[in-house]
Amino acid sequence: MDRIETLAAGAGGVVVVALLVALLAPGTLSGPPAERDPGRVDIADATIQPQDIGGQTVELRVNTTLRHRGNPTRNVSVRLQAIDAESGLLATTQTVSVGELRGERERIVPATLSVDREGGYRIETVVYQDGRRVDTGRQRVSGLQALVPAYARTPITFADERTLPPLGVAVREASGDRTTLDATALLTNQGSTQPANVSVQLTVRQADSNLVADRASADVAAIRPGRTAETAMTVSVPSEYNYYIDGVLRKDGVIVDTTRTAVNLDPSERLAVNETSRDVALEVSDFERDRPTAGADDGAEMEGDSGSATPGFGVPVAALALALGGLFARRRLS
Prior knowledge:
The protein has 334 residues and is of the alpha+beta class. The chain is built from three helices and 17 strands. 16% of the residues lie in helices and 48% in strands. The chain is elongated.
Protein backbone atom coordinates (compact mmCIF):
# COMPACT_ATOMS: atom_id res chain seq x y z
CA MET A 1 0.00 0.00 0.00
CA ASP A 2 1.55 3.31 -1.10
CA ARG A 3 1.44 6.62 0.75
CA ILE A 4 -1.81 7.87 -0.80
CA GLU A 5 -3.63 4.68 0.06
CA THR A 6 -2.33 4.94 3.63
CA LEU A 7 -3.57 8.53 3.98
CA ALA A 8 -6.96 7.64 2.56
CA ALA A 9 -7.32 4.72 4.92
CA GLY A 10 -6.34 6.96 7.87
CA ALA A 11 -8.82 9.64 6.87
CA GLY A 12 -11.57 7.06 6.60
CA GLY A 13 -10.72 5.79 10.05
CA VAL A 14 -10.88 9.28 11.49
CA VAL A 15 -14.31 9.80 9.90
CA VAL A 16 -15.61 6.53 11.34
CA VAL A 17 -14.29 7.37 14.82
CA ALA A 18 -15.75 10.89 14.67
CA LEU A 19 -19.16 9.56 13.68
CA LEU A 20 -19.14 6.97 16.48
CA VAL A 21 -18.17 9.56 19.07
CA ALA A 22 -20.82 11.98 17.79
CA LEU A 23 -23.49 9.29 18.08
CA LEU A 24 -22.45 7.94 21.49
CA ALA A 25 -21.47 11.25 23.15
CA PRO A 26 -22.90 14.21 21.19
CA GLY A 27 -21.43 16.87 23.49
CA THR A 28 -17.88 15.53 23.49
CA LEU A 29 -16.82 16.97 20.15
CA SER A 30 -18.67 20.27 20.50
CA GLY A 31 -16.89 23.50 21.27
CA PRO A 32 -16.66 25.07 24.75
CA PRO A 33 -19.87 26.55 26.25
CA ALA A 34 -18.66 30.09 25.60
CA GLU A 35 -18.72 29.41 21.87
CA ARG A 36 -22.28 28.09 21.81
CA ASP A 37 -25.40 30.20 21.47
CA PRO A 38 -26.44 31.70 24.86
CA GLY A 39 -29.58 30.41 26.56
CA ARG A 40 -32.89 32.20 26.71
CA VAL A 41 -33.76 34.70 29.48
CA ASP A 42 -37.22 36.21 30.00
CA ILE A 43 -39.38 37.66 32.79
CA ALA A 44 -41.55 35.12 34.58
CA ASP A 45 -43.16 37.53 37.05
CA ALA A 46 -42.62 40.70 39.10
CA THR A 47 -43.96 41.98 42.42
CA ILE A 48 -44.01 45.41 44.09
CA GLN A 49 -44.00 45.96 47.85
CA PRO A 50 -43.74 49.25 49.81
CA GLN A 51 -40.77 49.37 52.16
CA ASP A 52 -39.67 52.58 53.91
CA ILE A 53 -42.65 54.98 53.97
CA GLY A 54 -41.80 58.61 54.69
CA GLY A 55 -43.79 61.81 54.74
CA GLN A 56 -43.02 62.72 51.13
CA THR A 57 -41.43 59.61 49.59
CA VAL A 58 -41.85 55.85 49.65
CA GLU A 59 -39.39 53.13 48.68
CA LEU A 60 -40.84 50.42 46.44
CA ARG A 61 -39.18 47.00 46.52
CA VAL A 62 -39.47 45.47 43.04
CA ASN A 63 -38.70 41.75 42.81
CA THR A 64 -38.24 40.61 39.20
CA THR A 65 -38.27 36.85 38.60
CA LEU A 66 -36.05 35.90 35.64
CA ARG A 67 -36.49 32.53 33.93
CA HIS A 68 -33.43 30.94 32.25
CA ARG A 69 -33.30 28.00 29.86
CA GLY A 70 -30.61 26.47 27.68
CA ASN A 71 -26.89 27.22 27.62
CA PRO A 72 -25.21 29.57 30.12
CA THR A 73 -26.05 33.22 29.47
CA ARG A 74 -23.54 35.90 30.34
CA ASN A 75 -23.80 39.66 30.98
CA VAL A 76 -27.47 39.74 32.02
CA SER A 77 -28.82 42.96 33.56
CA VAL A 78 -32.21 44.38 34.55
CA ARG A 79 -33.22 48.06 34.21
CA LEU A 80 -36.18 49.45 36.18
CA GLN A 81 -37.89 52.78 35.49
CA ALA A 82 -40.64 54.55 37.43
CA ILE A 83 -42.65 56.77 35.06
CA ASP A 84 -45.27 59.23 36.37
CA ALA A 85 -48.70 57.94 35.34
CA GLU A 86 -50.10 61.43 34.64
CA SER A 87 -47.22 63.39 33.13
CA GLY A 88 -45.30 60.49 31.57
CA LEU A 89 -42.05 61.92 32.94
CA LEU A 90 -39.31 59.63 34.22
CA ALA A 91 -39.25 59.77 38.03
CA THR A 92 -36.32 57.45 38.78
CA THR A 93 -34.38 54.54 37.28
CA GLN A 94 -32.08 51.79 38.49
CA THR A 95 -30.01 49.12 36.72
CA VAL A 96 -29.08 45.85 38.44
CA SER A 97 -26.26 43.65 37.10
CA VAL A 98 -27.24 39.98 37.27
CA GLY A 99 -24.11 38.46 35.68
CA GLU A 100 -24.26 34.91 34.34
CA LEU A 101 -27.28 32.61 34.48
CA ARG A 102 -26.94 28.83 34.27
CA GLY A 103 -29.27 25.88 34.24
CA GLU A 104 -33.03 25.50 33.93
CA ARG A 105 -34.02 27.74 36.82
CA GLU A 106 -35.62 30.98 37.98
CA ARG A 107 -33.82 33.76 39.81
CA ILE A 108 -35.29 36.68 41.76
CA VAL A 109 -33.60 40.04 41.15
CA PRO A 110 -34.45 42.63 43.84
CA ALA A 111 -34.28 46.40 43.34
CA THR A 112 -35.52 49.50 45.19
CA LEU A 113 -37.10 52.60 43.63
CA SER A 114 -37.67 55.77 45.67
CA VAL A 115 -40.69 57.80 44.46
CA ASP A 116 -42.98 60.54 45.76
CA ARG A 117 -45.87 59.32 47.93
CA GLU A 118 -48.40 61.32 45.89
CA GLY A 119 -49.72 60.03 42.57
CA GLY A 120 -49.19 56.80 40.66
CA TYR A 121 -46.47 55.28 38.51
CA ARG A 122 -45.82 52.84 35.69
CA ILE A 123 -42.92 50.54 36.53
CA GLU A 124 -41.08 49.49 33.35
CA THR A 125 -38.80 46.43 33.53
CA VAL A 126 -36.29 45.70 30.74
CA VAL A 127 -33.94 42.69 30.61
CA TYR A 128 -30.66 42.98 28.68
CA GLN A 129 -28.16 40.33 27.53
CA ASP A 130 -24.83 41.74 26.36
CA GLY A 131 -26.52 45.12 25.97
CA ARG A 132 -29.30 43.66 23.80
CA ARG A 133 -32.91 43.94 24.96
CA VAL A 134 -34.42 40.47 25.31
CA ASP A 135 -37.65 41.06 27.27
CA THR A 136 -39.81 43.91 28.56
CA GLY A 137 -42.73 44.16 30.98
CA ARG A 138 -44.60 46.67 33.12
CA GLN A 139 -46.76 47.14 36.21
CA ARG A 140 -48.85 50.03 37.50
CA VAL A 141 -49.06 51.23 41.09
CA SER A 142 -51.45 53.89 42.41
CA GLY A 143 -52.86 55.18 45.68
CA LEU A 144 -49.48 55.63 47.35
CA GLN A 145 -50.91 58.52 49.38
CA ALA A 146 -52.96 55.94 51.29
CA LEU A 147 -49.75 54.57 52.84
CA VAL A 148 -49.28 55.91 56.36
CA PRO A 149 -45.74 56.96 57.33
CA ALA A 150 -44.20 55.08 60.23
CA TYR A 151 -44.14 58.16 62.46
CA ALA A 152 -47.89 58.72 62.00
CA ARG A 153 -49.17 55.20 62.61
CA THR A 154 -51.60 54.74 65.46
CA PRO A 155 -54.51 52.32 65.99
CA ILE A 156 -56.66 55.16 67.43
CA THR A 157 -59.21 56.49 64.91
CA PHE A 158 -62.55 58.28 64.89
CA ALA A 159 -65.50 55.88 65.20
CA ASP A 160 -66.94 54.46 62.00
CA GLU A 161 -69.39 56.97 60.55
CA ARG A 162 -71.63 54.17 59.24
CA THR A 163 -72.36 52.93 62.78
CA LEU A 164 -71.80 55.90 65.12
CA PRO A 165 -71.35 59.62 64.47
CA PRO A 166 -67.69 60.34 65.32
CA LEU A 167 -68.60 63.80 66.66
CA GLY A 168 -71.62 64.40 68.87
CA VAL A 169 -72.74 67.95 69.73
CA ALA A 170 -75.26 69.12 72.34
CA VAL A 171 -76.28 72.59 73.55
CA ARG A 172 -75.23 73.13 77.14
CA GLU A 173 -76.34 76.76 77.51
CA ALA A 174 -77.82 79.49 75.35
CA SER A 175 -77.77 82.98 76.83
CA GLY A 176 -78.03 86.22 74.90
CA ASP A 177 -76.06 86.08 71.71
CA ARG A 178 -73.75 83.19 72.78
CA THR A 179 -74.31 79.44 72.77
CA THR A 180 -72.15 76.94 74.65
CA LEU A 181 -71.78 73.52 73.01
CA ASP A 182 -70.60 70.22 74.46
CA ALA A 183 -68.75 68.25 71.79
CA THR A 184 -67.88 64.57 72.21
CA ALA A 185 -65.40 62.73 70.00
CA LEU A 186 -65.86 58.95 69.77
CA LEU A 187 -62.50 57.21 69.30
CA THR A 188 -61.83 53.52 68.65
CA ASN A 189 -58.64 51.59 69.33
CA GLN A 190 -58.34 49.18 66.40
CA GLY A 191 -54.94 47.82 67.43
CA SER A 192 -53.50 45.60 70.11
CA THR A 193 -51.69 48.26 72.18
CA GLN A 194 -52.54 51.51 73.98
CA PRO A 195 -50.62 54.30 72.22
CA ALA A 196 -49.65 57.47 74.03
CA ASN A 197 -49.39 61.14 73.00
CA VAL A 198 -52.72 61.18 71.13
CA SER A 199 -54.90 64.30 71.14
CA VAL A 200 -58.09 65.65 69.54
CA GLN A 201 -58.58 69.20 68.29
CA LEU A 202 -61.92 70.77 67.31
CA THR A 203 -62.22 73.80 65.05
CA VAL A 204 -65.62 75.52 64.73
CA ARG A 205 -66.15 77.53 61.53
CA GLN A 206 -69.09 79.75 60.63
CA ALA A 207 -70.63 78.17 57.50
CA ASP A 208 -71.17 81.33 55.43
CA SER A 209 -67.94 83.20 56.15
CA ASN A 210 -65.68 80.22 57.03
CA LEU A 211 -64.36 82.28 59.95
CA VAL A 212 -63.13 80.37 63.00
CA ALA A 213 -65.57 80.89 65.86
CA ASP A 214 -63.80 78.79 68.50
CA ARG A 215 -61.25 76.02 69.06
CA ALA A 216 -60.79 73.34 71.69
CA SER A 217 -58.38 70.45 72.25
CA ALA A 218 -57.98 67.57 74.69
CA ASP A 219 -55.61 64.69 75.32
CA VAL A 220 -56.98 61.21 74.65
CA ALA A 221 -56.97 58.94 77.67
CA ALA A 222 -55.81 55.33 77.40
CA ILE A 223 -58.19 53.22 75.32
CA ARG A 224 -58.01 49.48 75.63
CA PRO A 225 -57.61 47.50 72.39
CA GLY A 226 -60.91 46.95 70.60
CA ARG A 227 -62.78 49.51 72.72
CA THR A 228 -64.43 52.86 71.94
CA ALA A 229 -64.13 55.79 74.35
CA GLU A 230 -65.29 59.42 74.50
CA THR A 231 -63.22 62.59 74.65
CA ALA A 232 -65.28 65.64 75.66
CA MET A 233 -64.64 69.33 74.91
CA THR A 234 -66.58 72.58 75.20
CA VAL A 235 -66.82 75.44 72.71
CA SER A 236 -68.71 78.76 72.70
CA VAL A 237 -70.03 80.39 69.52
CA PRO A 238 -72.33 83.25 68.50
CA SER A 239 -75.98 82.23 68.32
CA GLU A 240 -78.26 82.28 65.26
CA TYR A 241 -75.59 80.91 62.86
CA ASN A 242 -74.75 77.54 61.36
CA TYR A 243 -71.34 75.96 61.86
CA TYR A 244 -69.04 73.23 60.64
CA ILE A 245 -67.02 71.46 63.34
CA ASP A 246 -63.81 69.83 62.10
CA GLY A 247 -62.23 67.15 64.26
CA VAL A 248 -58.50 66.42 63.92
CA LEU A 249 -56.78 63.46 65.57
CA ARG A 250 -53.05 63.86 66.17
CA LYS A 251 -50.29 61.45 67.19
CA ASP A 252 -47.14 63.20 68.41
CA GLY A 253 -48.33 66.32 66.58
CA VAL A 254 -48.94 64.48 63.26
CA ILE A 255 -52.46 64.40 61.79
CA VAL A 256 -53.62 60.79 61.57
CA ASP A 257 -57.40 61.13 61.09
CA THR A 258 -60.06 63.78 60.45
CA THR A 259 -63.84 64.09 60.52
CA ARG A 260 -66.55 66.79 60.20
CA THR A 261 -70.07 67.48 61.41
CA ALA A 262 -72.55 70.35 61.14
CA VAL A 263 -74.37 72.37 63.86
CA ASN A 264 -77.53 74.31 62.97
CA LEU A 265 -78.22 77.27 65.26
CA ASP A 266 -80.00 79.31 62.57
CA PRO A 267 -83.68 78.21 62.59
CA SER A 268 -84.29 79.60 59.10
CA GLU A 269 -81.67 77.53 57.30
CA ARG A 270 -80.43 73.95 57.56
CA LEU A 271 -76.83 72.92 56.99
CA ALA A 272 -75.71 69.40 56.09
CA VAL A 273 -72.28 67.84 55.67
CA ASN A 274 -71.46 66.33 52.31
CA GLU A 275 -71.13 62.68 53.24
CA THR A 276 -69.90 61.57 49.83
CA SER A 277 -66.36 60.32 50.17
CA ARG A 278 -63.97 58.21 48.16
CA ASP A 279 -61.56 55.88 49.86
CA VAL A 280 -58.02 55.89 48.48
CA ALA A 281 -56.22 52.55 48.64
CA LEU A 282 -52.93 51.23 47.37
CA GLU A 283 -53.37 49.34 44.08
CA VAL A 284 -50.78 47.32 42.16
CA SER A 285 -51.70 45.91 38.75
CA ASP A 286 -50.72 42.51 37.38
CA PHE A 287 -47.41 42.26 35.56
CA GLU A 288 -47.74 42.67 31.78
CA ARG A 289 -45.25 41.59 29.14
CA ASP A 290 -44.76 43.09 25.70
CA ARG A 291 -44.75 39.67 24.08
CA PRO A 292 -46.49 36.40 24.99
CA THR A 293 -44.68 33.91 27.17
CA ALA A 294 -42.91 31.21 25.18
CA GLY A 295 -44.54 27.79 25.32
CA ALA A 296 -43.04 24.46 26.22
CA ASP A 297 -42.34 23.67 22.55
CA ASP A 298 -39.94 26.59 22.29
CA GLY A 299 -38.06 25.43 25.33
CA ALA A 300 -37.84 21.87 24.02
CA GLU A 301 -36.58 23.12 20.70
CA MET A 302 -33.94 25.24 22.43
CA GLU A 303 -32.80 22.31 24.54
CA GLY A 304 -32.50 20.14 21.46
CA ASP A 305 -30.39 22.74 19.70
CA SER A 306 -28.12 23.16 22.72
CA GLY A 307 -27.54 19.46 23.26
CA SER A 308 -26.83 18.42 19.65
CA ALA A 309 -23.90 20.65 18.85
CA THR A 310 -22.00 19.84 15.64
CA PRO A 311 -18.57 18.21 16.26
CA GLY A 312 -15.84 20.79 16.08
CA PHE A 313 -13.72 19.04 13.42
CA GLY A 314 -16.43 17.07 11.58
CA VAL A 315 -16.58 19.28 8.48
CA PRO A 316 -12.78 19.62 7.94
CA VAL A 317 -12.28 15.85 8.36
CA ALA A 318 -15.08 15.10 5.91
CA ALA A 319 -13.56 17.47 3.36
CA LEU A 320 -10.12 15.91 3.79
CA ALA A 321 -11.56 12.42 3.46
CA LEU A 322 -13.33 13.36 0.21
CA ALA A 323 -10.16 14.91 -1.23
CA LEU A 324 -7.99 11.92 -0.37
CA GLY A 325 -10.67 9.56 -1.62
CA GLY A 326 -10.65 11.36 -4.96
CA LEU A 327 -6.86 11.14 -5.21
CA PHE A 328 -6.95 7.44 -4.32
CA ALA A 329 -9.59 6.73 -6.95
CA ARG A 330 -7.59 8.65 -9.58
CA ARG A 331 -4.46 6.68 -8.70
CA ARG A 332 -6.21 3.36 -9.09
CA LEU A 333 -7.69 4.35 -12.42
CA SER A 334 -4.36 5.47 -13.79
